[in-house]
Amino acid sequence: MPDNDPISFAQLNTLQGINITRTIQDQLDSKDTDALSENKILVGSAAGLSEAVDLSGGGTIVSTGVMTLGGKKGYTTTATAAGSTTLTAASTVLQYFTGATTQTVVLPVVSTLALGWQFTIVNLSSGAVTINSSGGNAVATVSANTSVTVTCILVTGTSAASWSILTGQTTAALTASRALASGSAGQLVAATTTATELGYVNGVTSAIQTQIDSKLTSPTWTTFTPTVTLVGGAGNTVPVYTTNTGRFSQIGKTAVVDVYLTGDGGAEGAGSGVLNIALPAAAGASTPAGKFPVGYGLNNALESILYGVVGPAATTVSLSYFNAIGTTTDYIGDSQNNATRTIRLHFSYEVA
Prior knowledge:
Helix content: under 10%
Structural class: mainly beta
Distance between the termini: 133 Å
């Protein structure tokens, strides 16, 4: 030891236990690390020393089952060409597809990945993008303007069972003020139903169709006696019929009426009084007083198209018929003066 570099007794004691197979400076130098390069991370080596690892190739670090890091950051854009794009552990986690046709994406062999490894496939193309496992099994179909995220859930096998899928939102703006629905790939799409139309069901307490059906019941017919009278004129005899039936059905303020008078049930009609037939209910106060077709009349062989008048608050329908082209006249007692006689009416009117 040079005389000009003395070592004290205390300094000598600090050398106790040092591995003398290597120089002290070599051992000190081995503990130094180089400055980290970009895209690298320090990990412990088998020798217990820090070591720089390059993650740019999609390396994986497992921290005693607590944390898994995987997948290369960034994104890759591919123009669809009705071909295939095969991903590996070195592929970026974001995969964008553009263009106007289809493409097939083949996922990596799962044994090269770690659990939880993800890829997001964003389809900006107008054609569908099909995602297959490394074994060629269909995992998902990404419709135009949608995205799908696939997650590795098994590191064995080559089928779709090794992957979990999560369908993303559409990449295109949804139509404003529309209800939302699920598309063919399970993504959100704008329905044709508008927000205003959707608001119409606000407050509904049960099935709408069931409520509508309950309101549309079959009409209920009620029988009544269509009493015949002769109004005005002279020499009147009210005709009597073998069959004298009537029925009506009322829906809201509208009554539908059927009348059937036929057969020689006694006296034949006579006189100039106008035939009136009783209504099942009084007419409304606003009922117009004009003539309208009401049915059919038969007297011997003479057939007539009958018209009626139901005035405001009326309780009968007053009958008339065409006796010439463009001319109507009253249907009177003499119009039913034969043993072969019939009046058949079917009409509706406003009730009170």
